[in-house]
Write a structure and sequence with these properties.
20 helices, about 0% strand
Length: about 375
């Protein structure tokens, strides 16, 4: 009888019910809400589903993230910057740079959207973060999860890597909710109805030379960006050269999805109640939202300026796509434009600033690394 009672006591003592706190319950509810957004609403389900499930598991069984736990080893690949760089290769393999090549002015809109990063940087300094912490936090404004993880690890800010990564990926997923109100507020309906002329046809030679030239120039100017920009342009070269179709298919499909699973679950698993429910994390989440809003607004306003300068040839809505959430931000530009005029087609035009924003965010991250002397 004593054996049975001890066995039952051990079973009960090992269950999660005996160690679960109110904070864990709150995070489990948040995880379930994110799952709802991913599954029912379709908000970046490829990212949000593994992130939210990792969040769910770590708040039920915290040891899954402790040294020796499954997600601990996944997370080491984040800390070593392996997964972010592989994500960039997959993005490059899936992305058509044609719209950016056909309309180089898109680089201006991509650069404008980086304003949110610098707004977040100075905001973080005001809130008491040191310069390296502020730099790591500020990249959230680019809505670029891999770059956020890459910069935070390179600057040695692993203590706040979890909140930074979750905030960045969450805002990437919530682009369809956050951006449209800002776009409608800053851009009058008359300008939202502007139809842009069809982009010129980009030759195969241009598409092959583009990743080689960009990788070479950016890496020479800012060598610290080589891991990100280099892998992105390598993936795009796989796509455009036409002689390594198997590599392009692997990078954009099987490998990409494996990396997303590992990165998403490990990032979600950093959100234990003890690590996430504190004032520092809340500051990071708020700063990220402000940065993302500032970046979207800057893109819209510069888009309006370019609209005036070009005599109404550019629809300012594509400026909001300058944040790095590819291709979600471009789709939002298309959606908001179609609300004003269902016959308007802005998606390909918006892809130019969208891709430029990815490059721009990586360049800003490299600039921060160069400023702080991190190689």
């Amino acid at each position: 009888m004593e054996y049975i009672s001890n066995t039952l006591a051990n079973l009960v003592g090992q269950s999660a019910f005996t160690t679960m706190t109110i904070g864990n319950v709150i995070m489990i509810v948040v995880a379930c809400f994110f799952l709802y957004l991913a599954i029912a609403k379709g908000f970046e389900p490829l990212l949000l589903t593994p992130i939210s499930f990792g969040m769910l598991l770590v708040n039920i069984y915290p040891d899954i993230m402790a040294e020796g736990g499954l997600f601990h080893y996944f997370f080491l690949l984040d800390e070593w910057s392996i997964l972010p760089c592989l994500i960039f290769m997959g993005v490059g393999a899936m992305t058509d740079f044609g719209p950016l090549i056909a309309n180089p002015k898109s680089f201006i809109l991509g650069a404008a959207a980086q304003f949110g990063i610098f707004a977040a940087y100075f905001g973080a300094i005001v809130l008491g973060f040191n310069d390296k912490q502020a730099a790591a936090i500020s990249i959230i404004g680019g809505a670029d999860g891999p770059t956020s993880i890459f910069l935070a690890t390179r600057l040695g800010q692993t203590s706040i890597l979890g909140p930074i990564a979750v905030a960045a990926y969450s805002y990437m997923s919530l682009v369809p909710i956050i951006q449209p109100p800002i776009m409608r507020l800053l851009i009058p309906e008359k300008e939202r109805k502007i139809k842009m002329s069809q982009l010129r046809t980009v030759s195969k030679l241009e598409k092959i030379l583009f990743p080689v030239i960009v990788a070479s120039l950016v890496s020479m100017i800012l060598p610290t960006t080589a891991p990100l920009i280099g892998m992105m342009m390598l993936g795009n070269l796989f796509r455009e050269c036409g002689v390594v179709r198997q590599l392009q298919e692997t990078a954009s499909n099987a490998l990409m999805y494996i990396v997303v699973i590992l990165l998403g679950t490990s990032v979600g698993a950093t959100t234990s109640a003890e690590a996430f429910l504190n004032p520092t994390t809340l500051k990071i989440v708020v700063l990220g939202l402000i940065a993302f809003a500032f970046g979207t607004a800057a893109g819209c306003l510069v888009g309006r300026i370019m609209c005036k300068v070009t005599g109404g040839k550019i629809n300012p809505l594509i400026g909001s796509a300058g944040v790095s959430a590819v291709p979600m931000a471009a789709r939002v530009s298309q959606k908001v434009g179609a609300e004003s005029d269902p016959t308007n087609f802005l998606l390909m035009h918006a892809m130019g600033p969208n891709v430029a924003g990815v490059v721009g965010t990586a360049v800003v991250a490299g600039t921060f690394m160069a400023v702080f002397g991190v190689g």
